[in-house]
Amino acid sequence: MPKVEIASESCKSCGYCVRFCPKEVLSVGERVNSKGYEYVVPRNIDACVACKMCAVMCPEAAIEIYK
Amino acid sequence: MARIFMKGCEAIAESAVRAGCRFFAGYPITPQNEIPEYLSRRMPEVGGVFVQGESEIASVSMVYGAASAGCRSMTSSSSPGIALKSEGVSYCASARVPMVYANISRGGPGVGSIQPAQMDYLQATKASGNGGFEMMVFAPASVQEAADMTYKAFDYADRDRNPVLILCDGVIGTLMEPVELPEMKTSEEVAAIKNSKKPWSCIGHGSDYATRAWIQPGQWSTVTQQQENEKAAALYESWRKNDARAEEYLTEDAEVVITAYGISARVSKTVVDILRARGKKIGLIRPITVHPFPVQSFERLDYSRVKAVLDVEMAIPALMAQDVEKAVGDRAPIHTCLCSGGNIMKKERVLAAAEKLFELVK
Amino acid sequence: MEKIYSRTKGLRADVVGGFCPGCMHSTVMKLIGEVLEEMNLFERAACVLGIGCCGLHMDYMSFDNITSPHGRACAVATGIKRSSPDSLVFTYQGDGDFAAIGLGESMSAANRGENISVIFVNNGIYGMTGGQMAPTTLMGMRASTAPAGRTAKEHGYPMHMCEILNQLTAPAYIERTSCNTPQNTLKTKKAIAKAFQNQLEGKGFSMVEIVTSCPTNWGMDALGALEYINEKMLAEFPLGVIRDAREG
User: How far is C220 from chain B (nearest CA, A)?
Assistant: First the structure.
């Protein structure tokens, strides 16, 4: 099963990764980081196909993918 | 070494090459066109680069780039073109990038006249761009000096990582005189100079933030910006102590002291000789660096003898006179002998002014 | 388990960039870092940053850079490249820098066919100074210096830099891309790689215009700005390869 690592401190909650994940793996979380952003978390990792679209879109280079 | 007959502008250009300058970018403007023209031929012979920029601004920006890559680099222009270059010069000063440029200056504000003048004194010495930076400014009074100063200017620029200006009036730039050119640096020496700059030159160092090159013409942090400004101020202060240069000619017993730089000084020196031959006690202080201003030479004067100082400039209003006033204070009255608009200072005019002063102080 | 996507070494590790949420300046520098890493070019890379939000990168990127006077990036890059031909020299400029104050430097470097690469980030507005009108601001688009929106009568029309540069003979490669979808973002990365490869091969001037958003100054959230790119920006600035000397 792939792993999606999101650097929560780097996330600015722009939503690009959520918008382009074809499998609805990601969603904006309830917890906020030190800058006040509700960072994105992989809620449905079982559905992840490691397509990397989230990481490609992330402006902050905050997402790393393992397979 | 043999002396050869050469135009001031060409001597400046050849000296730059001999000093190891391998990048020149410039834009046409009279009376300095011989510098880019000469270097467009000469640079390819020594493996250097000549670029005719699309403007003075682009040219000085190219020099900022080449100098940031560690290459001894130069540009030149004349008064209104120099004004345009102030942007790039300020960036070089702020980012502490060494470069040399020459102003073969002409008359008046705006486009002015294309004939020689010394109207850019304040711009050169006080505010060559935004941000309160300073530069060493050399003022040659002969083609020989233009060659020698250009050669040395690169060493000063590298020593201080700062721009250096050759402030050359249009007479010296276009005058032909015999000149002994400085020694040509070998390609090994030129390469060694470039290599010594590698740690900070923006040419690629890898992806380690700590060791990368970072040419910063400004700081995001007010703390580091103040620190940079303080470091620069300390450098400028060191020039005032160590690097101010002037020629003091027959000043020991002088009752009247002429002060002038560049071609005005050369004319004035003739006047000193004429009056000395008539038994008049007259001398000359010729700033060689107009910045830092050679205050020490004025300090050394014996004010129990000096009755008056005569400031001779091809500038109206008088410009260097402001620095002379500061240096002399109330120890002697300061008079001026001026011409402008592209008119070259005449010996007769200075002679008459000096003679009048001797009458006054009698 | 194998890592199949890593944060590029071109960005400082553990440093969060100061760009606004969704700002594609971050995306573009990330892509540049990835390309340099994949092409093993960090040891040779010299980035000339323009003035404006572009300049913010200086403290977040990890490799050599120089900030140019506003608009002069192509001239500065000319100086570096000509005196240090082994370096990989590229500019990173916004629309104000490249197409307004630097138009002369941009056009002239392109016309000389300077062997440099230009990464031109077009978000249709002045970002850092607070949303003033740019040469690429869309018709009717509001800006802090065009409060009623851009009009032809007062401001003229958006400038299409790719098409303008395409009038010149010298440029080797001109492409317009965007970062509005994963597919386009990957195309942008490919275009950047091509611009760099062209330089390594001595082909001359390459320019990639990247249509991006400025959510803050467009007055939208990041996802809303994505839609604006799709509906408005790309209608004005169509994507595609405008010039590829290898094809010609």
Answer: 27
CA–CA distance, B24 with C83 (Å, rounded to integer): 10
Q: Which domains does chain C have, with CATH numbers?
A: 24-244 (3.40.50.970)
Whole-complex ipTM: 0.97
Among B160, B171, B167, B151, which Cα is nearest to B82's? B167
For residue A7, give the CATH number of its domain: 3.30.70.20
Contact C223/A65, CB-based, under 8 Å? no
Domain extent, residue A61, equals: 3-66
Q: pLDDT, tens digit, for every residue of C35-91?
A: 999 999 999 999 999 999 999 999 999 999 999 999 999 999 999 999 999 999 999
DSSP C147: T
Mutate to test the interface with C, among A34, A40, A57, A63 (most CBs of C within 10 A): A57
Q: Is the pLDDT of residue B264 over 70?
A: yes
Return contacts of B211-215, CB within 8 angstroms, 24+ apart.
B212/C62, B212/C63, B212/C64, B212/C65, B213/C46, B213/C64, B213/C65, B213/C66, B214/C58, B214/C64, B214/C65, B214/C66, B215/B68, B215/B95, B215/B97, B215/C65, B215/C66, B215/C67
pLDDT band at B2 (very low <50, low <70, confident <90, very high): confident
Domain count, chain A: 1
